[in-house]
Amino acid sequence: MKVLALFLIISFPRLVFSQNAPKDSVYTEVINNIVYILHKVEPGQTLYSLVNKYECSVAEVSDINPSLKTDVGIKAGQVLKFPMIKNGKHVSASAYWAMRKKAWASKNAPSTTPKTKTPVKEKASKGPYHDIKAGETIFSISKLYDLDISYLVEANNISDNKIKVGEKLLIDKNDIEKIVVDLEKETEPVLVLTPVGRKVSEAGIAEVINTSNRTTKYLALHRTAKVGSNIKVTNEATGITIVAKVVANLSKKGHDENVMIKLSPYAFYKLRPKDSKMRATVEYYVPSKKKAVHSK
């Protein structure tokens, strides 16, 4: 039996199991010897709540679900893959098979000793707020509490990268989720990049616009793209993409000389950056040059 199980795990990189998955998941699937739970999204659920439920990261979920790289919103009925995590580590196919076998043996084994309940250790509460200390950034704080950077920024109404020592940041995941869900209801309709004209592609540094104006619009400052046009921006590290509207052009010299594009805070953090700057690629379209007609 052990030989057969090992043969199945090695021979089939994508192996589907239908047992021992959470009640609201569809089934489990093995990809490259790692077990993933296929979850069917229910009404009211958000990507943030599901990432917390399965104790994983948005970046990892985006990598295994290509649709999330172009649309971070999720819909009821959509099926998404989430890594199965146990004790902070990914569960391999062999470990999953061993857990199932052990659970089956335990369930069917005759009871010889009275069962005793083991006291459950409660996790130490870290409080709903974090007091900002010298040297900390929104990026280091998001990593400290395993919070998605875009949700941390949105829930705390941060309009740029600047935070002050002594200020308090909300870090309670449940409270953050409620705020973000309400905020996303006010989000502007998703913009679309229409392929009309000549396509232009560039790569460079993307930064956030330092502004006190809090908006849920996807806005951009770019050096050459036409004001009023749409521009597609992709985080090279995560592959996550958004489309923003160009509202002004960057100066060719000065402070922004080495910056390719600047984004409104809401748009910037939707790309899940790891720092205040990130490598990005952009795509936009410019009118095609009309060929001159020479009269004879």
Please give a structural write-up:
By secondary structure, the protein is of the alpha+beta class. The chain folds into three domains: 2-105, Roll (Membrane-bound Lytic Murein Transglycosylase D, Chain A); 129-185, Membrane-bound Lytic Murein Transglycosylase D, Chain A, CATH 3.10.350; 198-286, RlpA-like domain (Barwin-like endoglucanases, Beta Barrel). The chain has helices at residues 2-11, 47-53, 58-64, 93-108, 138-144, 149-155, 173-185, 265-270; strands spanning 14-17, 25-31, 34-40, 79-83, 85-86, 89-90, 129-131, 168-170, 198-208, 219-222, 230-235, 241-249, 261-263, 277-286. It has a six-stranded mixed β-barrel with strand order 9-13-10-12-11-14. A four-stranded antiparallel β-sheet has the order 1-2-3-4. Strand 5 and strand 6 form a beta hairpin. Helix 6 (149-155) packs across helix 7 (173-185). It starts with a helix and ends in a 10-residue tail after the last strand. Mean pLDDT is 77; it is low at 1-16 and 115-126.
